[in-house]
């Protein structure tokens, strides 16, 4: 195909993805009248930065932000702590029932979240964990995908390194921490980024597992805010921008990791 | 604690020590819930404590609302799968050329993939709203006919919004697949006089089959469990036109508070997803090509 045509097509596709997001930013800086005016406002006359402050007055938006940070942060830390450890065990240890346990682990990849949703809700209700951080966090502490990713990454590390450390008298935990873990850094970066972004954006479980506005995460708090104040689009847009900015900043600095991470998931 | 005498016994003990948290976690948060959803699906009543046998399943299979939600979900998934493959591959083919600014294009196309379904849903509802939406205000101000896509073709519209979010992801997968095809095949075919069209159908597409399979499996799995689009954009409507299965299950469970009936429906949907995945993987294995 001719190059000018290619450039045009790609530029159009990029406009399709970027313009709506830019409009979201514009909307967040409009007055309520501008959001409704018959002549659609694409660039507000005077940006209403006060919309962002008003959002915090109308809804416990500070809580939403803290909740999102705590929940996504804790889950990400748990993945970084456990996924490489479990991946290491399946990559480098021989022990009874190893294959059975590994198959049982991989089988959980076939279980979509909605299957666990109702029983988890009942479980959390009986434990009194609805509307708590532990209720929001514990169902996602590990997953088979992260463990599998780490196992694939650890497998090529030479066994000799581990044997040498054992002969030197290093404890098993020490071997893991000083020999294995430092070599997994690129994979850990991918794992951490993906886990954080997905949990930051997670919608269904926080919707099910919270009952008071104060415990909602941003995606849920924002959606329910919009249901309550459905005409205040400028405030909903401001909330969307707040939800979007952290992932956008992360992405700009780490897009190579993201692209490599996605490509990695596609390779069998 | 008993000290194992052999070396392999000691390694096994270490392995299990390291595995304890994972075994506890997957038992408590995967296998226990899976067991519970199955047993709950056999019960009825507001507390889901009365034995119903297979009653929930027979009821679900005969329930027009449940059947409709499965149909809606199937149509939605087909659109998302086909769209993911066609658009993702087209963008990947375009980006696989030696162009300036490839990284910028790739980044911009991938941005929606990083946004929450809450952002995607709220933003597109605002854009497409027939009365207050910005698209119609722009169209009418420029004297063009207005659209009412959320009323006239709601399912196609939310599928398109889903593609808007996910197509960057499939594009990156296809790009990785394209870069795995050795340049020599194309050069050899060029020398033999094959034009670009022929090379695409005879070389690129067959050799991309594993990627296409992976993309379609992922798209089916995510399409069949879409929820936020219906919850945020359409509330399942107009009428029940976008009553996606997980949205339907959510409403039966948490609005109608019927855990037995909703559990049976989620087991049915799980069976569909697992069956589809296995069929696709088997079909894909048969269709694999090597040159």
UniProtKB/TrEMBL annotation, chain A:
The keyword Membrane applies. PROSITE patterns: ABC_TM1. The chain crosses the membrane at residues 64-90, 102-124, 136-154, 175-198, 232-253. Keywords: Cell membrane, Membrane, Transmembrane, Transmembrane helix, Transport. GO terms for biological process: transmembrane transport. Coiled coil: none annotated. SUPFAM superfamilies: MetI-like. It is found in: Cell membrane. Its main location: membrane. Residues 65-254 form the ABC transmembrane type-1 domain. It is a multi-pass membrane protein. InterPro entries: MetI-like, MetI-like_sf. Belongs to the binding-protein-dependent transport system permease family. This is Carbohydrate ABC transporter permease. It comes from Nonomuraea longispora.
From TrEMBL, chain B:
CDD domains: TM_PBP2. This is Sugar ABC transporter permease. Gene3D superfamilies: MetI-like (1.10.3720.10). InterPro entries: ABC_transporter_permease (IPR051393), MetI-like (IPR000515), MetI-like_sf (IPR035906). It is a multi-pass membrane protein. Belongs to the binding-protein-dependent transport system permease family. The keyword rRNA-binding does not apply. It is found in: Cell membrane. One of its GO terms (cellular component) is plasma membrane. PROSITE patterns: ABC_TM1 (PS50928). Residues 70-280 form the ABC transmembrane type-1 domain. It comes from Nonomuraea longispora. The lineage of its organism: Bacteria, Bacillati, Actinomycetota, Actinomycetes, Streptosporangiales.
